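Example record for the data management plan.
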Amino acid sequence: MVTIPGLASLRGRVLLLAVGIAGLVILLAAVPLALLLRSAAYDDAEREATYAAQNVSDYLSSGTYDDQVLDQYLKRVNGRTSWPVTIVMSDGDVLGAGLSSAALKSATRDGGRAIDADGDGDQRGDGDGDADNLGFVSDARTISVDDGRLVEILADDGDGQARVVASVDNSVIFSSVRTRYALVGVAALGLLLLAGAAAEVTSRRLVRPLRRTADTAGRLSAGDLAARAPEEGPAEVAQVAVELNALAGRIDELLTTERESTADLSHRLRTPLTAVRLGVEALPASERKVELEQHVASLQRTLTQVIRAARRPQREGVHPRADAAAVVRERLEFWTPLAEDQERAVTVDVAGGESWVRSSADDLATTIDALLENVMAHTPEGTPFGLRLVPGPEDVAIEVHDDGPGIPSGAISRGQSDRGSSGLGLDIARSTTEAVGGTIEVGRVDGTTMVRITLPTAGSPQHGADGAAQP
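Corresponding structural encoding:
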């Protein structure tokens, strides 16, 4: 199916519907309107031709002229009208514009038609009963001929019955009809443009609140739970905004309740955890005590992270962001003394400048600490490792690699072994990375263990999430 660009949208379809309906109405009205215009053009032409013929007939019936004056009068009349007038005198002379033989034959075929105003049979008198006794003028008669129509009027020329004929030429009529058709076409085009403009205004008013509602939904999906759609536009569109706002409020309430419940539970666990830690410290020195102390310390760190995660929206805002380059340098500086104590060679590849990612600085630091701690704890001393930051237009990659024995497949899943450990370090890195829409990969490249985390980019604090400058 072929889709015309721009017409697949609601706005395009409203515009197409309005213009289509207007075009259909114009098309349905075109045929009767064309016939009406054609008929009106002939009626107007016959009326003007009749008026010209009547003027000449009245002058002819007065009897106050000679042939030379009458001929000059006809030239003046024909110079002012599109319908030339011809006089066929009672003696057969033809004055004025002249007629073709066929038209002249049609005009003189009167079927016995004659002037008899007063009904006395003498075909004389004007029939008004006064003393002027002007010659009588008959009513106009229309005769159809091959190239148009003739308007004929009988008039008394003083010597008999003369015929005054005005010609209505089809070519002149057609030119007038074409002009009228063109005017109607321009009006139809204006109607289509008006319908399109009205549809454009209507569709804008309809689509604008829908777009704002869609933008609000996008902001909500991006984590901006304070976003609300404007409740405007048609009733149905406004109802969508109302329901979306109610849904956003409900989600905010549920998340708040969840955070509060998690923080409350974590705080409640601190007391028994402290008791466990004190109990472990009271045990006699042994390898078992050291192991228990490590587990308790790990549990305490995890509990602290849970509390911090529960409080993160209030602490860091709705859209946390961090300069990955700065965090990597800071954490590398923290771990460098231990690496030197263990005689490890460290390779660093962090480009200058800023690399902002969609993650809090604490979460990113926790992730890097978990990866570096995994290297320090589970590779032999003296094993070299490296840290590399690869910025990109849409994401930023952080790679930690070492020359150790490698990490088993699936070690980043919770509860599985990570080179003999509980697997908590990689699981922390996985959870914090995936929480912001990132990914984590573990593998070996050319005999080197590689852990690669990829985080989506974000605007700097002076810009919004989309990189646009904030006012």
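Summary line stored alongside the record: The two ends are 45 Å apart (CA to CA).
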